[in-house]
Fold this sequence. Notes:
By secondary structure, the protein is of the alpha/beta class. The chain has 11 helices and 19 strands. The chain has 2 domains: 3-136, Rossmann fold, CATH 3.40.50; 143-286 and 319-351, Dihydrodipicolinate Reductase, domain 2 (2-Layer Sandwich), CATH 3.30.360.10.
Amino acid sequence: MAYxxxxxxxxxxxxxDISGRTHSYGYLHADAYAEREDCTLVGCADVVAEYATGFxxxxxxxxxxxxxxxxxxxxxxxxxxxxxxxxxxxHAPLTIxxxxxxxxxxxxxxxxxxxxxxxxxxxAQVCDHEDVQLTFDHQxxxxxxFRRAKELLDEGIVGDLERxxxxxxxxxxNGTHALDLxxxxxxxxxxxxxxxxxxxxxxxxxxxxPTADHALVSWQxxxxxxxxxxxxDDVPLTGGPYDFYDCWHxxxxxxxxxxxxxxxxxxxxxxxDGEGWSELDIADETxxxxxxxxxxxxxxxxxxxxxxxxxxxxxxxxxxxxxxHESSRRRGRISLPLTGVYDHPLETMIETGAISPERxxxxxxxxxxxxxxxxx
Length: 376
Ligand SMILES: NC(=O)c1ccc[n+]([C@@H]2O[C@H](COP(=O)([O-])OP(=O)(O)OC[C@H]3O[C@@H](n4cnc5c(N)ncnc54)[C@H](O)[C@@H]3O)[C@@H](O)[C@H]2O)c1
């Protein structure tokens, strides 16, 4: 098969330095499609015209197929595959428009899924109805340290998984990766309940959505495994691990422990009960592999293989994210499925004055952001 690919929200480019971002994700998607013989970039769109023309020049997109709006891009190019690489509030409306266009067989959307729980479910429902493959770019799954950790679990080297501990950045934007990885480690078991508390005493909007820095959230999966995430600290938006658990993920098992992304330590190590630590020599792909994610989603088209980035897995992760926020709003444990919630609870709490964050227009970026370590 040959696929006509279009990208909406290409961004300013590479080597940028805005709030810690070192590259626009549209470029990373395009790099991956360009590597594949079965994909041709036929169009691009960005509301900032110069971003679209700069991208088109780099990826040889014909001048007549460079657009400012996604609707004219869809009408002018009739793509088979669309990557949505825009800020979070636009993910749902753009994805739904793409799915309803007619020519589109697959939408690959950036994470987190959507601004609200209702929008996340609507995206999945519309794509299902239109028979469009919908996937989300939880591409950290393909990073070597996470993949190898999953292999260690599957090999039973430290017994069976009992608890997943997470210390990673913030609870929404980074949290979607951290929880998606937890689900991968736990064989995609669904969560049964979630309980959490969030701190939003300081304003922090990330990719268009208020994002709690400091959170403590626990949950239990249907298979009995527990999860607990402690994110952020008194310095907001640390993109890497912080010292609550000293690592991004600690996988506590019946016969030992696996740790991934230790603060100032190895990227992957494990310890069997009664023995010392074994460190694994592994490529630093904690930032993920967008190229392998694109291979997975394109490979799933016209095949029996379902992408592991599919909407069902993303919804399961997103449900824990929104349930964690809802638990903070209701001050209680939330049983899943998450019903009666349509909004982003944190956004509503801010709008209704239930919480009043300190505004931070002139707050300097944390050093980790300036160093580009705060990638989503
Ligand atoms: N998967 C990951 O690991 C990862 C890492 C970082 C960011 N992201 C996600 O990628 C997305 C984009 O992040 P980025 O860093 O590339 O941002 P960016 O600002 O570099 O690019 C986004 C672009 O979208 C454009 N845009 C906004 N609304 C639009 C619309 N309606 N139509 C067309 N263009 C529009 C903006 O003008 C901008 O140029 C976000 O959702 C973010 O969470 C994912």
